[in-house]
Amino acid sequence: MESSTAGLSMKLLQDLYRSMLRIRLFEEQVADLVEGGEIKTPCHLYIGQEAIAAGVCAALEQEDYVWGGHRSHGHYLAKGGDLRSMMAEIFGKATGCSKGRGGSMHVVAPEVGIMGTVPLVAATIPLAAGAGLAAKLRGSRQVSVAFFGDGATEEGHFHESVNFAAVYRLPVIFVCENNFYASHMQLLQRRAEDNIWKTGEAHGIHGVRLDGNDVAAVYSAACEATERARAGEGPALLECRTYRWRGHVGPAWDMDVGVLRKDELKDWLPKDPVARARAQLLDRGAGQEHLAEVEHALREEIEAAVTFARQSPPPDVSELTEHVYASRGGSACET
Amino acid sequence: MESSTAGLSMKLLQDLYRSMLRIRLFEEQVADLVEGGEIKTPCHLYIGQEAIAAGVCAALEQEDYVWGGHRSHGHYLAKGGDLRSMMAEIFGKATGCSKGRGGSMHVVAPEVGIMGTVPLVAATIPLAAGAGLAAKLRGSRQVSVAFFGDGATEEGHFHESVNFAAVYRLPVIFVCENNFYASHMQLLQRRAEDNIWKTGEAHGIHGVRLDGNDVAAVYSAACEATERARAGEGPALLECRTYRWRGHVGPAWDMDVGVLRKDELKDWLPKDPVARARAQLLDRGAGQEHLAEVEHALREEIEAAVTFARQSPPPDVSELTEHVYASRGGSACET
Amino acid sequence: MRNLSYAQAIREAHAQLLESDPRVFVLGQGLWSPWYAGTSLKDLDKEFGRDRIVDSPVSENATTGAAIGAAIAGMRPIVFHPRMDFMLLAVDPIVNQAANWSYLFAGRVSAPVVIRSVINRGGEQGAQHSQALQAFFAHIPGLKVVMPGTPYDAKGLLIAAVRDGNPVLYIDDRWLYEEAGEVPEEMYEVSIGKGAVRRHGADVTIVAISTMVREALKAGESLEQRGIHAEVIDLRSVKPWDRDLVFSSIGKTGRLVVADAAWKTGGVGAEISATVAGEVFRMLKAPIVRVCLPDVPAPTSASLERVYYLGSDDIVSAVEKVLAS
Amino acid sequence: MRNLSYAQAIREAHAQLLESDPRVFVLGQGLWSPWYAGTSLKDLDKEFGRDRIVDSPVSENATTGAAIGAAIAGMRPIVFHPRMDFMLLAVDPIVNQAANWSYLFAGRVSAPVVIRSVINRGGEQGAQHSQALQAFFAHIPGLKVVMPGTPYDAKGLLIAAVRDGNPVLYIDDRWLYEEAGEVPEEMYEVSIGKGAVRRHGADVTIVAISTMVREALKAGESLEQRGIHAEVIDLRSVKPWDRDLVFSSIGKTGRLVVADAAWKTGGVGAEISATVAGEVFRMLKAPIVRVCLPDVPAPTSASLERVYYLGSDDIVSAVEKVLAS
Ligand SMILES: Cc1ncc(C[n+]2csc(CCOP(=O)(O)OP(=O)(O)O)c2C)c(N)n1
Ligand SMILES: Cc1ncc(C[n+]2csc(CCOP(=O)(O)OP(=O)(O)O)c2C)c(N)n1
Ligand SMILES: [Mg+2]
Ligand SMILES: [Mg+2]
User: What is the pTM (predicted TM-score) of this model?
Assistant: First the structure.
C-alpha cells in the first residue's frame, strides 16, 4: 500500500492530506448541523470518500472542469470552491454560492471550473463530455472531469457519454466513485458483476480499477489520465472503490435507508483514507504538532464559515423570479 | 464455413433456405413497388441480412416473443407473420396487419409473438426485456428476442436493458444485426472500436460474435442462447455481422444516403446468405428442380399478396379516431 | 367506515391488486427501501415476494420500457417513479411507445400499464426534486392521467387504472400522504374521467387538482364566512377530465377559478380555461383566473419556498378577483 | 432583395453564425448526410470542417447533454434533432438540466444552447415520425421556443436564438422547406417574443403558428372574397409569445381563432385561449375556436393522413363558427 506514495513529494502529500481533512471536517460539521436541525436541505455526505475528490482534483489545473452530483461537497472543496459560500448555500442564504436557489445538491464555483453539480443521477456526465468537446474545439489544454457514483453507471446516458467521448477522443475523465450502494441497493442487486471498470474496454477507452481510499493511488491514476487527455489520447474511466460511512442522505451511521450494514462498516472504517494519509505523513517524518496546527486552522475556517452562514440574510423574496432566464448573451463563463 | 451446417438435418436446412428466400423475394417485390411509386410508406429493406431473421426465428417457438424496428419485414416473415397482411399494410390498406395505421415500420402479428415493431431506434429493446420479465413471472418457457442494429447499441436504453436483463437473468436474447452502418454513418464513426459483442461481458452476460450471413451459424447460436434462457441462465447478446445491400431506406443499390460504398458491396455480394444456403443444399444433394419449385411457389404467394393488397380498400376515414385507447381491460394478447 | 391515510390507501390498493390478479406486479426504484415511497409501498416485498415487487437499477428508461413490454405481453404492471422529475428519462417509452401502441396496431395489441410517479417537493430540495408535469403528459393522445386528492380516490383510482387497459399515469403527492379519510375495505374503482363536487356553492366554481383540493376547501370555508358560496370540484382525472361536471357548475356560477399546483403557462389550467372559453363561453360572467405556480423552477431556500408554493389564500385572492371583475 | 427558400435561409443563418462566432458549432444526427436535414445544413461540414459540424452516434441524450455542457463551458452550440420525436430521448437534459441551469445557480452560469428540431411528418411515416410537441416545452420555465413560419424568420430567429444566451428550442417544419421568400443577405435578428401581423382585418383574429400561417393566409384570402376581413398573426415565438400584439388585435376584432398543427388538448392554443380568457375577457365577443390536430397519433395510410392533417379550409370553418356564434 505504502508504495503508492513512493514518487510523491512531501509537499504534495501534505496538500492531499489537508484537502481530505478539510472535506472531512466540513462534512462532520454539516452532519452536526443537520442533526441539530439547523440545516434543512438534504445533505449527502462525502465522509469516507475524501481521497477520490482530493486525489483527482490535485491532478487538475484551475481552468479544468469538474462536474458533480448529489454528493459533491467534496468535489467542490477539493477543486478550490469557496468554503464559506458553500456553507452559506447549505444554510439557504443569499450569500451562498447559488444564492439560495441550490442548497446542498446544487453547488457551483465557475471561477475554479465547477460548472454546477445537480442531483439527478448521471445528469452531469453528458455535460462533462460537452465541456471536453468545448476544450477540444477551442484547442485549450483543459480537461473535463465527471464525478459520479456506481449507481450512475446504470443510466443509459453514462454509456452514451463514454461512447461519445471515445469516438471524438475528448479530454474527459470519467471518475466513478464505486461505494457499492445506490441508496439502499447493493451493487450486485443492480448489476450482474462487480466490473464497472470493464465498461471502459467495451467502449474502447482506457479503464482502470483502483483503491479509492488511497489518495496517492488516485492522484497518480488521475495524473496519468489527464496527461493522456491533454495529449489528445482521449478519455479514461477510473473506477475508484470506496465506501460511504454515513447514510445515503443525512448523517446516520449504522443504518442505510433500511439496510443495516454494520458489518461492512467494520471492514471499511480501518481503511479510512484520511487516517491513512496521516499515517503516511507521520511515516515520512511530518511532525504531530504540524498536523495538529493544520487541523486547528481548518477547524477555525469551518467555524468561521458557519458564523458567516448564520449571520447572512436569506434570499430576498422579491427576487424569487430572477435568473429564470440569463441576461442577453448568456453568462460569460469561459475559463 | 460449410462446417456450421454439419449437425443440421436436410429438412432444417431446407426450411432455413425457404425462410430466407421468402424474405428476399418479398423485399425485392417491395423494392420494385417502391420504385414504381405504388408504395409510399418508407421501406427499410432487409436484403442481405436474411440469415439472421431466419436463423434466429427457426430456433424459436410460436409463443416466443419477437420485437423489431424499422427494418423488420424479415423478422415478421421469419417468425411466421402473415405475408399478405404485411403486404397490405405496406400498401396502407384496411386489411393490413395494422389496418393502415402502421405502414412498413410498424408491423404486428401477436398470434405468433410479434408484439410490434417500431422505427425509433432501440425502442423495443426495453420492451423485449419486459416481455422476458413477463415470461419469467409467469413461469412460462417463453423467450423474448430483440432484433436491432449496430446503431441501436449507441442508445443508452440498450445498455440499461441489457443490464436489467442481466441482473434478473431474464430469458431475453439481444440480437444485434451489425451491418456496419446507421444510415450514412459507418460503425467506426460512431464507436471507437468494432467490438459490440464485448458489451455482453461488460454487463456480465454471454456475448458472442458471429457471421450473420451464415444461417446455420446463426441458428446454432440462437439455439444455444434459447436453451440457456429457458434454463434460467439469463440473457445473451449475439452480434451478427452482416451487410445491407440496398440503401438505408428505399431500394437504391449503390448509394447510401450520400455514402458511396460500391467497394464494400463488391466484397459482400459474394457472401450472399441466400446463395450460400442454396449452394449448401445442392451440396447435400437437393435437386435443382425442387429448389425451382420452392422459388416458384414463393413467387406465386407474393404475387397473390400484391393482388390482395391492391384490391383491398383503404381504411375507412370515419375510423380515424378509433383505437387511440384500447377497450376496457386492454387487449388479451397473452400467448 | 375505516379511516386510512392517503399513503395507506395507496398501499392497500397495491396489496389488493397483487392479491387478486396474478398479472399485476410492481417495478421501479425504491421498492425494497422502507422510506423511498413513504409508507405507500411499505413491506409489499415481504408480503408478495421480490419476484413481484421488483426494485431496480437506476435506469428509468429501461424499467419503464420493461413495464410497457410486460404489459403488451399480457401482464398488468405498475411501474414506480419515486419522483416525477426522474420520469423525464422515460419520456420516450411513455410518449413514443406506450401512448401509441394501441393506435399503431389498430388495437390488436395494447399497453395496459400504470405509470405511477410521485410529486415530492419542498424541504429545500430544489428544482430537480419538485416538478409536477401533469400537463406534459395530458397533451399526449393515448395516455390517461389521474391525480387523486383524497385517500378514497387514491385507492379507487389506482384500481381503476390497473383495470383500464390503457397506459395510465397515476400521480400522487407526498404532501397528501398523511391526510386521513374514509376508505372502504373492499376493492372499488373511481371512474377515470369523473370529477367530484366537494363543496356546493353558486357564486364561483373552483376546479382544483390534487393538493389544491384541500386548499380550495379551506378557501371555500373562509369565503363562506364572508358570504361567498364557492363550489369546489375535485377534478381527480386530468385526462380525460370531466367537462360535463365543470360546465354544469359554471352554468350555475358563471365564474371559474382553476387551481393547479404546477407552472401556469401551458398547465392543465390552460386546457380547462380554453375548453370553457371555447365550449360554454356564453355562460361565463367574468374572466377565468388560474391559481398556479409562477413560471419559475423551484428554489431551495425555505424563505423562497414559502413564497413560491401555493396556499388557500392564493385561491381566496383569485376568487376575489373573479368576483370583482 | 433575394428570395431564398426556408431551408436555404436556415442554412445561411448557420453559415453566418459559424463564420462570425468561433464559439458556434453544430452537433447532432445527420449532419454529414446530404439528405437528413434536407438542404438546411447542406455541405456545412465541407465548408466549416467536421470539427465544428459534428455528426454523432445515435445517442440523443448524451449529444444534447454534451451541447448543453459545451454551452455552459462557454461555447454557443446548436444541437440538431432531425425529428422532434427523437428529441424525446433528450427531455432530461433539456428540461431538467438546460432549463434550470441559470436559475439553479442564480445566473452565475447558464446554458446558451440552441436546440433545433424538425417537425417531419406525412408521407405515410406514422405516429413516431410526426410529432409537434411545442406545447410540451413551452410549459417549462427557463426555455424559450420559437417556430418560424417564413424564410425571413427562419434565418432571423436562428440568429437571435444563438445570441440569446438561454436554451432556445428552434422548431422548423419540413413542410415549409421549399417556401420561398425575401431574405436579407446580412445577419439580422428577429426578436424572440415578437409576433407579426401578416394580414390586416377587423372581423376576426387568427393567431397561427409555423405551417399554419400559410394556411391562415389562404383562409384569409378566401374569407375576403366573402367579405370577411381576417387579421392573421404569425406568432413566431411560442414562448414567450406576443400577448400585446394578440390582445390589441382582439381589441379590434373581438374574435379569436388559434391555429396550431399539433394536438388540441393542452396545446399551445390552450395557453393562448386561457390567457385571453383571463386577461382580456371583456374584449371577447364570441367563443375562442382552436384549429388543431385531433387528439390522435398520426396514422400512416395516405387516406387517413388526408383527413388527419389540417388545411386552410379548417381555418375557414373555424372562422365561420366564431362569426356565427
Ligand atoms: C435520474 C435519477 N434517478 C433516481 C434518483 C434517486 N437517487 C438519488 S441518489 C441515488 C443513488 C445514486 O447512487 P450512486 O450513483 O452510486 O451515488 P452515491 O449516492 O452512492 O454517491 C438515487 C437512485 C435520482 N436522483 N436521479
Ligand atoms: C431514437 C431515434 N434516433 C434516430 C433515428 C433515425 N434513424 C433511423 S434508422 C437509423 C439508423 C439505425 O441504424 P442501425 O440501428 O444500425 O439499423 P440499420 O438501419 O442499420 O438496420 C437512425 C439513426 C430514429 N429512427 N430513432
Ligand atoms: Mg454509490
Ligand atoms: Mg446498422
Answer: 0.98
